[in-house]
Design goal:
The complex is a heterodimer of chains A (480) and B (95).
Chain A (H helix, E strand, L loop, with lengths): L4 E12 L24 H4 L8 E2 H13 L3 E2 L2 E2 L1 E5 L9 E5 L5 E9 L5 E13 L3 E3 L6 E5 L6 E7 L6 H17 L12 E11 L9 E6 L2 H20 L8 E5 L4 E4 L12 E2 L6 E2 L2 H10 L4 H12 L3 H7 L3 H13 L4 H19 L10 H12 L5 H12 L5 H8 L7 H14 L1 H8 L6 H11 L6 H12 L2
Parallel strand pairs in A: 13-14
Antiparallel strand pairs in A: 1-11, 1-12, 3-7, 4-17, 5-6, 5-16, 7-8, 8-11, 9-10, 12-13, 14-15
Chain B lengths: L4 H10 L9 H16 L22 E2 L9 H6 L4 E2 L2 E5 L4
Antiparallel strand pairs in B: 2-3
Classes of the chains: A alpha+beta (480), B alpha+beta (95).
């Protein structure tokens, strides 16, 4: 990375709001329905229809505003953004322009274990999504599915506060987690419920003015955001250092080639001719409404993180990972409950074995084959000494493969830890007798051989001896 | 404020209107006249006046988030020039 240049990034995130019906009509918003079965007269822009605003969309926008320390505007106005495209039947998109519903907020992102950075949120406005164009297989024509037309979107516009692709991804992840916590967006990036455009420019390290920016459209994964920005930064620097100039334009990221390309330029620069939509009246939001919304806000990621640190003694880093998604945080807390309150042990298992197994299987935590209650049950058996941590990992794999509860597997496979001192003592003596050389070395001062003896005993018992007890017994006999 | 012919062409293009080149000069004069008429408003002192978003000084009523529409695809598609597999077909929009 060239150090002479500073990268400047701002993101526009589109979050589809999880309403049942559309923003301006009573058509359903369910994903994956048969084409055009969820596109009513309003969504089609037929003559004589009137859009009526969905109360839930307003509520969700207000929640987002409160959760990002933003101003929720007492008065906001819908405007028409005019352009022609077949998946936009009215010839304009209803959006908000001069008076958005949410503005001037911020979110703090973690850069590493001890540094946070504040990212400004310029505005978040309500608008309707467009339909979908299908370009293949229609004998040279384009197929239009308007099911998505009119789905409510919250477009969240950041300040140009990010200085690297990593910061941009951290910010996007934070917004993603937040809308999931607030339950206002399902966050499904494959289905396009959460996507973003990145504005990227570079400037000499000490410059005051921003460089000319390009906009990379429609990035629908965190990985693509990172790759696209990194590519674009390198491209712009190479261009400028080669004596060229960055052209302000819209580009698309090609994930197969890991590069950005200019979109086929439209014949003229965008000229949307915004004006207030005469079909819709100004939206007014009163303090009483906001107080009600504030009272229903769930515990937000930052507060939950602090509570995990305080209640369970977790590090900021661990608490940050566990609260990165609401599902994972819920799973963790349910595990703690089921394990009789073992916070640290639960954290280690959720972030370690569980998360590893889920990743390997490509399964989301909400679909985990091992429930939080079941994992808690396993941790109880570690805590009460029935099995060692090592055996527990084996039991966990069996649980993950659907072989039953921890107790059932321990019983069936005879994995119960040997805690009977006389039985262990017998094995300890046997091990010492079989290793006279090491025993002599130990007696001559090489006390670190204790570990060797512990290992031998564990091996002789197939890991079932209680390691703590083995240690104690060995010390007792050796140091007698 | 007077519009020249290239501005008229641009406005027609943005609105996807096909206009007869022979009429452009007249359109330019008519549109300029309309603008001049409206420009009289600039003489009014609007200091301290809130911009009006809508002539009705009312606020937006909201509807409950309920699915109230039924599937009427068949009816709607009867007035479409061409449909297939439930999709509306239009001239190809990317090359």
């Amino acid at each position: 990375m060239n150090t002479k240049w500073e990268t400047v990034i701002g993101l526009e995130i589109h979050a589809q709001l999880r309403t049942r019906s559309k923003i301006f009509s009573g058509a359903a918003t369910r994903y994956g329905a048969q084409p055009n079965t969820q596109a009513c007269a309003v969504d089609l822009g037929l003559p004589g229809v009137l859009p009526v605003l969905n109360a839930e969309a307003v509520l969700m926008a207000a929640k987002f505003g409160l959760a990002t320390h933003s101003t929720v505007a007492p008065r906001s106005v819908f405007a028409r953004k005019n352009y022609f495209y077949p998946d936009l039947p009215k010839g304009y998109q209803i959006s908000q322009y001069e008076l958005p519903i949410v503005h001037d907020g911020y979110l703090d992102i973690e850069l590493d274990e001890s540094t946070t950075k504040r990212i400004g949120i310029t505005r978040a406005h309500l608008e309707e999504d467009a339909g979908k164009s299908l370009h293949e297989d229609f004998h040279g024509l384009t197929g239009i599915d308007l099911n998505r037309a009119g789905t409510p979107l919250l477009e969240i516009v950041s300040e140009p506060d990010m200085r690297s692709a990593r910061e941009a991804v951290a910010y996007m992840k934070k917004i993603h987690a937040l809308v999931r916590y607030l339950d206002i967006c399902d966050g499904n990036m494959q289905e396009g419920s959460f996507r973003c455009d990145a504005n990227v420019s570079v400037r000499p390290q000490d410059a005051e003015e921003f460089g000319t920016r390009t906009e990379i459209k429609n990035l629908n994964s965190f990985r693509f955001v990172e790759q696209a920005i990194n590519y674009e930064v390198e491209r712009q620097i190479a261009l400028i250092e080669g004596g060229g100039k960055v052209v302000q334009e819209t580009r698309l990221f090609d994930p197969d080639r890991h590069e950005t390309r200019p979109m086929r330029t439209k014949e003229e620069a965008n000229d949307y001719r915004y004006f207030p939509d005469p079909d819709l009246l100004p939206v007014e939001i009163g303090q009483a409404f906001l107080d009600d919304v504030a009272a229903t806000l769930p515990e937000l990621p930052e507060a939950r993180k602090q509570r995990f640190m305080g209640d369970y003694g977790l590090s900021a880093y661990d608490a940050g990972i566990l609260t990165a998604s609401r599902e994972q945080a819920d799973y963790f807390e349910a595990t703690v409950d089921a394990s009789g309150g073992q916070g640290k042990l639960s954290a280690n298992w959720v972030m370690g074995e569980l998360s590893g197994a889920l990743n390997k299987a490509g399964v989301d935590i909400i679909d985990s084959p091992v429930s939080a209650a079941e994992l808690g049950g396993l941790l109880l058996r570690i805590e009460d000494g029935t099995i060692s941590g090592k055996i527990a990992k084996q039991v966990f794999q069996d649980m993950f493969n659907g072989e039953g509860s921890a107790d059932a597997i321990i019983e069936k496979k005879g994995l119960k830890q040997i805690s009977d001192s006389s039985a262990i003592e017998g094995i300890v003596k046997e091990v010492l007798e079989n290793n006279p050389k090491q025993l002599e070395q130990y007696r001559n001062g090489q006390t670190k051989l204790l570990g060797y003896f512990v290992g031998q005993v564990m091996q002789a018992t197939q890991g079932k001896a209680n390691p703590k007890q083995v240690n104690e017994l060995l010390r007792k006999i050796l140091d007698a | 404020m007077a519009l020249d012919t290239s501005e008229v062409e641009n406005i027609a293009h943005l609105a996807r209107l096909g206009i007869d080149p022979a009429d452009i000069v007249e359109y330019a004069r008519n549109l300029s006249d309309i603008l001049a008429f409206v420009e009289q408003l600039n003489a009014v002192d609007t200091t301290g006046v809130e911009p009006l978003a809508h002539p009705l000084e009312a606020t937006q009523r909201l509807r409950a988030d309920e699915v109230t529409e039924t599937v009427e695809r068949e009816d709607f598609q009867q007035c479409a020039p061409q449909t297939e597999a439930g999709l509306y077909l239009v001239p190809k929009v990317i090359e």
